[in-house]
Amino acid sequence: MGAFKRILALLAAVLLALSLWELAQRYFILSPSYQTGKTPQDYGVTYQETWLPVAKTEGGGLVHAWWLPAESPAAPAVLFLHGNDSTLHTDVDLILSLRRLGLAVMAIDYRGYGDGAWYLPSQRSVYTDARVAWQAFKKLAPEASKHLVYGHSLGGAIAMDMAAVSLGVDGVIIDGGFLSVADIAKSYTASWLPFDALIRHNFSSYSKLPAIAAPKLFIHCSGDEVVPMELGERLYQLSPQPKAKLFMKGGDHDACYRRDGERWAAAIGGLL
């Protein structure tokens, strides 16, 4: 009987450790942020604020979205997906930069970010939120000449997941992207460490790339202090055609688009 109790105690300890490891991954990899700040209105740009419901089978709750319409209903439209430790407010300058290109823009906060209710996101939940937003986005811009998705950092992995399964994606822009979280971890430590087996919320795009038929634009800066440019190059090389890249010297992870605004705008124009 004593041996049986010890086995049960060991199992309980293992289950507790696994649960804590799961929670730790969700917190540190997704880094939910509640940062607030300026909105497009503060810059004189008209926008609409909306909350998109998520099915109860997917955890329920609301996805917070900004909609910045273009002057013409036929203008290309883009869904913007931010990275971890970011919100609509922290990325308002990038959102407005896309709008200044003449694009209609929808940008979202995943559940657990920005002005939303407290929620610990997961890989599945942010994938779901992007797909919910995509459906609403298509309805808001039915006449748009193209429907694009722009993903920054972790948002790039979310964009690639969506582009692999959603219909009507006419172009994918990946800014500061990577193939998996495990690859980033290895780049900081050693390539032989078993991060692929240890990390559950890995945001791996390896198996999804062949399914993305839309044109792809990859943007990266050599000064990226979060995702080394080598990982961006590997992502580009493994991606199928049609594809293009804008890799720039200097810059950083959060504002690579500012490194050379003219080249950044021209590269997006080329995708259009």
Query: Which radius of gyration do the C-alpha atoms yield?
Result: 20 Å
Q: Biggest β-sheet: count, sense, barrel? A: 8 strands, mixed
Strand elements, count: 8
Question: Helix proportion of residues, in percent?
Answer: 25-40%
Order of helices and strands: HEEEHEHEHEHHEHEH
Task: List key phrases describing it.
single chain, 272 residues, alpha/beta, eight-stranded mixed β-sheet, 8 helices, 8 strands, 37% helix
Task: Note down, in words, how this protein is organized.
The protein has helices spanning 2-30, 92-100, 123-140, 154-165, 181-188, 195-198, 229-238, 261-271, and strands at 48-53, 62-68, 77-81, 104-109, 147-152, 171-175, 216-221, 243-248. It has 272 residues and is α/β, with parallel strands linked by helices. Strands 1-2-4-3-5-6-7-8 form an 8-stranded mixed beta sheet, with helices on both faces. The longest helix is centred in the first third of the chain and has 29 residues, at 2-30.
List the helices and strands and how they pair.
Layout: H1 2-30, E1 48-53, E2 62-68, E3 77-81, H2 92-100, E4 104-109, H3 123-140, E5 147-152, H4 154-165, E6 171-175, H5 181-188, H6 195-198, E7 216-221, H7 229-238, E8 243-248, H8 261-271
Parallel strand pairs: 3-4, 3-5, 5-6, 6-7, 7-8
Antiparallel strand pairs: 1-2, 2-4
Helix pairs in contact: 3-4
